[in-house]
Amino acid sequence: MISDPKRLHPVAMLFFLYKDIKNWIVPAIVYVFAFYNQSKIWSLLGLLTIIILIVTGDVIKYFTFSYQFFDNEILIKNGVFVKKVNHIPYDRIQNVTANQWFFLKPFKLEELEIETAGHSEGPEVSLVAVPVELKDELNRYQQKFNSEEVTKNVSQETFFDKTSLEQASISKVTESYSITWHELLKFSLTSPAFLSGLLVVLAFYGKIQHSISKQLYEEAANEFVHLGWLLVVGGLLIVLLLFYLVSVFVLIAKYYHFHLDKTDNQFEMQYGFFKTKKTSLSKNRIQAVVVKQTLLRRMLHIASVKLVIISNSKKEETEKDIIVMPVIETVKLNDFLRKFFPHIPVDELRVEPAAAKTYYYDLRNALVFSLITDPNCQIKCNSIDLFL
Fold first, then answer.
1. CA–CA gap between residue 211 and residue 201 (Å, rounded)
2. Which of 2, 84, 228, 266 is deepest in the core (most CB within 10 A)?
């Protein structure tokens, strides 16, 4: 059975435009600032030319992009001057993820990302703005291909009943688990993700600090003196609180209504508020199960479960972690592992308390790292090496 060649939904042009704007926004701003003082007309005409070329390229990309399902592969065609044809056999597909932003739900559209064994850096194919039924159609083609492969590998003397074979190809949900609001709140409130935002701000300041004049520093110092140290410290605490609240909101929106299903041959995860994400993961790719628990979350009796996935790339084997359960109470952990990972030879998971020296070493390494990365640090390298 071969499907007809299909195009993306016209909304895909907006996705192409958004991606091109992200790639060209910085060069366009640099171009305008560089030539605006010399010639305003030519700078604006150049900017307008860039916009026209981007929009024209996105329209051409939309009309030249097509995909088609065959019995044993997916065929992707795109390109104008350089025609590109991508063959993706079903047996190479390892992970399929469906992303649906909230503004795509009324149109019943989503983005489909297909990861393969020979492509380790992100998805090999991204089908933006496709019908939500397309993932089910892809699963049907995969199941049919897998059932045919099984039939070929069996001796000719073996008798197969067609009805039983079709029933065997249908995956049934055997186990399921959903995160409760109480667990999600504890997970979000104990996350150090807000520190990443602070590091981004500090990194940006490190790049522009040399362009800031000394007069501006002096004026800022005078303002601090007039305001008083209590107000300055209060302002810094408010900034930290804002970063913290934003990170909590982002995590809640990201893992909103997290639900995990286990079928006969794969895991299926669904979560997200603004962008609903549905991921199908083959159990054959799982190499290890990791239970992660920070000190604060250990006190609150919650943990996270991650899967170590091996992608057999053509060049080398690469590893990456996939969160299969962002947060779960430790009292439920053993039962969860027995249901979803019965092949793990562990009767009961026990958490051993860390030694007191572990916290000392963590604090020491953090301080040494901060000293090494501080450009104004006056400590010599040989004195730092004593700690390492």
1. 16
2. 266
